[in-house]
Amino acid sequence: MANGVIRYWAAAKAAAGVPEEPYAAETVAEALENACTGRDAEFRRVLRRSSFLLDGAPVGARPHASVTLPEGGVLEVLPPFAGG
Question: What is each CA distance from 13 to 5, 9, 18, 35, 77, in whole angstroms?
């Protein structure tokens, strides 16, 4: 299990109620599922529409359960931004 940080931007930050929080997970899917604990449906909705960067590299269309998190990694949650 790796430990790192999830960083939220824009609408994801508003839905999470915090700018960042620690993760303890093996995969992106596990980290996001853990982040949903205790949060409302709006948070999940924002996550479904978001893109993700792991240490600055796009996660892209890869299944989140197949993306292993590194120790000390930074997972960024980027919701769609208005205005391009």
Answer: 13, 5, 6, 12, 8
Burial class of residue 23 in the structure, from the number of CB atoms within 10 Å of its CB (0-12 exposed, 13-18 middle, 19+ buried): buried
Strands 74-78 and 2-8: parallel
Asked if 59 and 78 touch (Cβ cutoff 8 Å), the reply is no
Burial class from Cβ neighbours inside 10 Å (0-12, 13-18, 19+) for residue 28 reads buried
CA angle 1, 19, 44 (to 5 degrees): 70
Mark the ranges of the chain whose per-residue pLDDT is less than 50: none
Structure confidence at residue 83 (pLDDT) = 56
The 3-state DSSP class for residue 12 equals: helix
So what's the pLDDT on residue 7? 98
Position 61: which residue type? Answer: A
